[in-house]
């Protein structure tokens, strides 16, 4: 069978599932479920590179460090290092669950998480206009209080509550791309660009240096998919399908849309919420415009059915 290469981008929120249950054990269970469905893909003959989000998790790590600094006089952790921590912890949970599921099914395959830096432009306007929701959800009063008293930037996130936001520059380069390609060529299941990658810039000396931001993992996964010429980009999130007029009385689920339709609906501005579904659609537009053949948005439990054409939202050139 000809090798088929897919990039699967797993949402940080879908790795939390229930916002009221965010223990490490609950997150591990969510990773286990997602890993199970990715192994279905591997069993069906796909080579897979996995990107994942970290919005909730990186916010929790940052907040823990801020509270520890206040209560115990511990050091705070810079946001790029929180991103690196989240790559390690989420990569660990995914990697272990993938290894366990592959072993259960008798599939011999290595899995490796690559601590991945992603270069951004230091002059990206995003540094002046934070948009990336991180951490948990708050009600409006609490969000406004933290904005006033703690200097947070906050937004209402897709009808689900209020969240803190940080800068989210556009990814320009996957620094560890050659290593990722080598691993994929060797048949390894690679977990990379976790949390969109650790945001770095090149300083005047040409050295890499971390910056305070959280890159959108759908954008980073799209960049990866373009760089490795993936045959398919899958965005695994908390909804089975994408909707037009999402959350409105005239909401309509989409089974299939063309690149031109995706661009039109995105431009209309009313269908895909900013900071949640809109970046996913944009990421897929970039992938298809660069020659990608097909993309799919669905939830983890429906990846197998969607790949058989039974559900999900398919976006094609
Ligand atoms: N048009 C839309 N169709 C489907 N879901 C949408 C739409 N607009 C916004 N959403 C919301 O976006 C969520 C996915 O975004 P988000 O939770 O940020 O993703 P992630 O899984 O990457 O963390 C869905 O669970 C849904 O609540
Ligand atoms: N980094 C990132 O895009 O995370 P989410 O998928 O959790 O938003």
Automatic annotation (TrEMBL):
Keywords: Kinase, Transferase. It holds the Pfam family AA_kinase. It comes from the Bacteria. One of its GO terms (cellular component) is cytosol. The keyword Transferase applies. Residues 4-299 form the Aspartate/glutamate/uridylate kinase domain. One of its GO terms (molecular function) is carbamate kinase activity. One of its GO terms (biological process) is L-arginine deiminase pathway. Signal peptide: none annotated. It catalyses: hydrogencarbonate + NH4(+) + ATP = carbamoyl phosphate + ADP + H2O + H(+). Belongs to the carbamate kinase family. NCBIfam families: arcC (TIGR00746), PRK12352.1 (NF009007). This is Carbamate kinase.
């Amino acid at each position: 069978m000809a090798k088929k290469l897919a990039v699967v981008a797993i949402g940080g929120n879908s790795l939390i599932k229930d916002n009221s249950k965010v223990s490490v054990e609950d997150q591990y269970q969510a990773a286990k479920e997602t890993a199970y469905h990715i192994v279905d893909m591997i069993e069906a003959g796909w080579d897979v590179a996995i990107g994942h989000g970290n919005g909730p998790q990186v916010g929790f790590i940052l907040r823990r460090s801020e509270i520890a600094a206040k209560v115990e006089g511990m050091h705070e952790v810079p946001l790029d290092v929180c991103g690196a921590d989240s790559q390690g912890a989420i990569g660990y949970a995914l990697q272990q669950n993938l290894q366990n599921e592959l072993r259960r099914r008798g599939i011999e395959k290595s899995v490796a998480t690559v601590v991945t830096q992603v270069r951004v432009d230091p002059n990206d306007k995003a540094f002046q206009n934070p948009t990336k929701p991180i951490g948990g959800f708050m009600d409006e009063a609490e969000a406004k209080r933290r904005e006033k008293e703690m200097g947070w930037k906050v937004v209402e996130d897709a009808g689900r509550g209020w969240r803190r936001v940080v800068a989210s520059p556009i990814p320009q380069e996957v620094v560890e791309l050659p290593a990722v390609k080598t691993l994929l060529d060797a048949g390894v299941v690679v977990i990379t660009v976790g949390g969109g990658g650790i945001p770095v810039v090149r300083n005047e000396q040409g050295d890499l240096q971390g910056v305070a931001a959280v890159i959108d993992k759908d954008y980073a996964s799209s960049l990866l998919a373009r760089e490795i010429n993936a045959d398919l980009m899958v965005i695994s999130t908390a909804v089975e399908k994408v909707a037009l007029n999402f959350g409105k009385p005239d909401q309509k689920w989409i089974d299939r849309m063309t690149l031109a339709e995706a661009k039109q609906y995105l431009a209309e501005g009313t269908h895909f919420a900013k900071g949640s579904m809109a970046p996913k659609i944009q990421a897929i537009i970039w992938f298809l415009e660069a020659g990608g053949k097909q993309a799919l948005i669905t939830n983890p439990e429906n990846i197998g059915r969607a790949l058989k054409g039974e559900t999900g939202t398919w976006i094609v050139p």
